[in-house]
Amino acid sequence: MKNDHKSDFRKSCIKKLEFISLFSKYYKNKIIVKKLEKFIKISESKNILLYIPLGIEVDVKPLIVTLRKMKNKNVYVPFMQGDSFKIVKFRLPLYKKKFAIKEPNNSFFKPNKIDIAIVPVVGIDAINKRIGYGKGMYDRFFDRLDYKPTIIFTQLILCKSKEILSDNYDIQADNIITS
Question: Cα-flanking dihedrals φ and ψ of residue 163, to 5°?
Fold first, then answer.
């Protein structure tokens, strides 16, 4: 029953996100990226996990460009592997993979740990747990880590349920940044 509510909520959030105008989206992206930059600067984080955005997600590409220019910052992105992903250093070119997700080539370098993980969400439930696309890749990734980085959820517009829709394995945000 809860999964039906979660699925319906996911669909309604995706629908809302798909109907944001291009101008509004551009403006919202700029606001969110500035907030993320400020948070990263204040936290003095060195190893940052970002993502290559899909159409309805916050466009963090300008943030990736900015962080890559800084000597004391390392930018990582997910690289799909099995039922989850591993993190790889961001570098060009990017290749389109499963689910139309772009990623760089595989890398064998692995950081000791990431300090901040910036994670896209479709929605969040009443206790700030992530509602994603339903594949569970981020949940599995964080479950397999032996430490907990600061987790920041990003979303163009807040889509939050008044109910608890998450399962115990769904990841929870330390911070949520939206426009």
Answer: -105, 160
Domains detected in the chain:
2-178 (3.40.50.10420)
Q: What is the maximal distance between C-alpha atoms in the chain?
A: 49
What would the two tokens of residue 158 be?
A: 């807040």
CA distance 27 to 19: 15
User: What is the model's pLDDT at position 82?
Assistant: 67
Q: Return d(Cα 168, Cα 146) in angstroms, integer.
A: 17
pTM for the predicted model, two decimal places: 0.84
* 137-154 average pLDDT score: 89
What's the pLDDT tens digit per position in 104-129?
A: 667 766 667 899 999 999 899 999 99
- Is 6 annotated in some ligand binding site? yes
136 is in an annotated binding site: yes
Is 8 labeled as ligand-binding? yes
Task: Confirm or deny that 153 is annotated as ligand binding.
Answer: no
d(CA 136, CA 166): 11
Residue 67 to residue 48: CA distance in whole angstroms: 9
Residue 176 burial class via C-beta count within 10 angstroms: exposed 0-12, middle 13-18, buried 19 and up: middle
pLDDT averaged over every residue in the chain: 85
Is 91 labelled a binding residue? no
